[in-house]
Amino acid sequence: VYGDLDTTLLDELPSGRKPIVTKHAKESQRLAVWGFLRSQIEMGHQIYVVFPLIAESETLDYQNLQQGYDALVQEFPPPLFQISIVHGKLTNEQKALEMNRFVNGETQIMVATTVIEVGVNVPNASVMVIESAERFGLAQLHQLRGRVGRGNTQSYCILMTGLKLSQEARYRMQALVQSQNGFEISELDLKLRGPGNLEGTEQSGLLQLRLTQLAEDTMLIADIRAFAMEIMQSQPPLFNTHMEQLLQDYAAHKNDYSRIA
Question: Is the predicted pLDDT of residue 184 greater than 70, yes or no?
Fold first, then answer.
């Protein structure tokens, strides 16, 4: 799968970090969740509250985020509480200002879209609340969860959903609650969403492979890669008549080979 790229396996938490406790909460439990957030703030910790993007409508994105922000302001009113908000309608300077307020501890709650998915490091943040968590994929939920748990205190991730969930959505919530292992979660995400097109631009969807399944045959693929590297190192393939013929066949029938591999 990775061709001639070298890969490094990181399968341990950094020293001093604790596993993140993940809970699935429904709308009927919101008051209890807010009470928990208040207790964490009283302990001096900070909170992320993330809202999903609705790809079809930037307007709905903003309304959803703004309504959530307004509800939080009512529940956590100033001046006792300070809340930052980051979304796509802000300028880069405004985003940086709001981010810095949270990083510097001037605000206790950060309300945002998935803009905080990467590149944000606030060790004092102990809780990640993901609203409408059923709209996110497993890998993205795990990535967001990783924004907390960066200090030496216990951290939490709360997956907020509606009362009615599809079977697949329930499966995703259960997987996140039960597993901290990014490798397990990425494999589950691969099975659910598919890898997309290995030679195209699609990032999800099932492949039309005839002889293998990426999620089930990882060990076999690793063995095949090792064997291919042996061939490459033992005989330069461009000077090998048989290998040269295979390369010509591949170039002529690329689509067929992509379904067989």
Answer: yes
Same domain, 204 and 169: no
In a domain, 16, yes or no: no
Which residue is associated with the tokens 């709905």?
60
| Rounded distance between C-alpha atoms, residue 53 and residue 10, angstroms | 30
Helix, strand or coil, per DSSP, at residue 57: coil
**Long-range own/partner contacts, residues 77-83 (CB < 8 A, 24 or more apart):** 81/41, 81/108, 81/109, 82/106, 82/107, 82/108, 82/109, 83/107, 83/108, 83/109, 83/110, 83/111
Q: Are residues 94 and 73 in the same domain?
A: yes
- The H-or-E segment that residue 46 falls in is strand 46-50
- The reported pTM is 0.74
Last residue of a domain, one of 144, 160, 193: 193
Q: For residue 107, which of 128, 126, 81 has the smallest C-alpha distance?
A: 81
pLDDT digits (tens, 9 = 90+) for 91-147: 999 999 999 999 999 999 999 988 887 778 899 999 999 999 999 889 899 999 999
Residues 187, 67, single domain; the answer is yes
Q: Kindly report the CATH number assigned to the domain that includes residue 27.
A: 3.40.50.300
Of the candidates 133, 159, 171, 161, the one whose C-alpha atom is nearest the C-alpha of residue 21 is 159
**Number of domain units in the chain:** 2
Show the domain range for 229. 200-261
